[in-house]
Amino acid sequence: MGVVEELKPIFSPKSIAVIGASRSPMKIGYEILQNILVQGYQGKVYPINPDVTEIMGLRVLPSVLAVKDDIDLAIIAVPAEFVPKVMTECARKKVKGAIVISSGFGEIGGHGKQLEDEVLQIARKGGIRLIGPNTLGYKDPIDRLDAAFVFGMPMPGEIALISQSGALCIGMIYYANGEHIGLSRVISVGNKADIDDADLIDYLDADRETKVIAMYIEGIKDGKKFLDSARRCTKPIVAIKAGRTPAGSAAASTHTGSLSGSDVVYDSAFRQVHVQRAYDVIEMFDFARALAYQPPAAGNRVGIISNGGGAGIMIADWCESIGLKVPNLTKKTMDALRPQLPSITTARNPLDVTGDARFHRYHATGATMLSDPNIDSLIMTCVHAGIARPREYVGAVIKLVEEKRNLKKPIIACWVGGPEIDEVVQELRVKNIPVYSSAMRAAKAVKCLYDEGRRLEAISKKKQARESSTK
Ligand code: COA
User: Fold this and answer.
1) What is the pLDDT at residue 268?
2) Atom number, ligand 1, closest to the C-alpha of residue 22
3) What DSSP character marks residue 78?
4) Shared-domain flag, residues 131 and 200
5) Is residue 102 lining ligand 1, measured as CB closer than 6 Å?
6) One domain for residues 316 and 446
7) What is the rounded end-to-end Cα distance, in angstroms, of the chain?
8) What is the mean pLDDT of residues 434-462?
């Protein structure tokens, strides 16, 4: 059985047992049961607790062995020392998959590590695939299954999120909600005793709802397995690899029991398999949103439009300092731009459309720049100068994105200003148009789309080579 089939009972279960379902609203076992019910899960739910007969109107059984039907997924939230016994019962019951929420395993070392190995052995012997231990669980906003503690569903979308940190995972969901970034599946992997990043990459690569895989990683145990999965993945992967420094690495070892490893090795491994590395949460979502909603860039030549010269210069600096080019425009483009501009400005790249630019100037110059064969992608910027019209700028960007889809050139929005303009550009976020509050973020997003273009090129070259060798 392949990994996709193996993980199906975990992510699309027909029945769920919540082991450690609690009558106390302050406990995790209560919250998990509540979250499953609140989202309207349509399968069968079996709360398990030897001391209780009813919770939330559901009959409670003392053990999974007392359940008559088959159980696809067991979510386990009992103290660590009871997990081996519970897992043994799950194996006898032929439960197909488990999520071990409990902490107190590999992350505390010594006895905890032994306990983790024991649980893993029981699961392996019983043919149970296992997420965790020390995990939050998962949230599936597409199929509306909340198999996690902590209340609330992410906004549905096309970016899958895998996190080795549970608390950070929740923070990232709230950040994504605020940025209007939709998620397809959110999986907290915890200590990764069994199911690891590589398994999830394979699973999510086959998931029709997911376009991009975003990851927060502290350590990878089986490097070869990860590289193989990342290499064969057809979708872009963006990863934060934390624990880069001695201080970060020491913290990771007590957080999830991870060995962070050499950062240089991770860096070069990620490059080899085209995993785009991000260095914080904001950057990870910047890249993921660009990859999900803009085409890859065919080349590294960037056109820049701004209504403030300084912003254009900073973007040009950022582009050139990270391997992009800010090329000269063709004569045809410059001739077309001149009548679209006030006489005080020069038709060049970066292009300053001046502070008073309104819808038509942004729209016309954007369309002209995009038609230039020297330009592979466009950054459109609005500085909230006193006479600026951010609403008209936003309208022009939306129109260009809608009209110019067939050109397959990325269009990225960028702004400089205060909360008033942040509010106005929210319309771009709602429409899934990448919009960034700094020159650096905008340039890096374009670089990431350029790198995605190189990844796809490498895949297609490999495919051609394979085809010609079999002819
Ligand atoms: N089968 C089923 N239920 C059992 C059981 C068993 N073998 N043994 C105990 N229970 C029941 C208890 O009776 C209790 O129910 P009650 O509250 O109605 O009395 C319930 O399970 C919970 O057990 P309890 O001993 O009260 O534990 P707890 O809720 O205080 O803590 C954990 C359990 C798993 C939440 C806790 O040990 C833990 O690991 N917390 C950290 C979790 C975490 O942070 N994970 C990582 C996130 S990123």
Assistant:
1) 93
2) 18
3) S
4) no
5) yes
6) yes
7) 31
8) 96
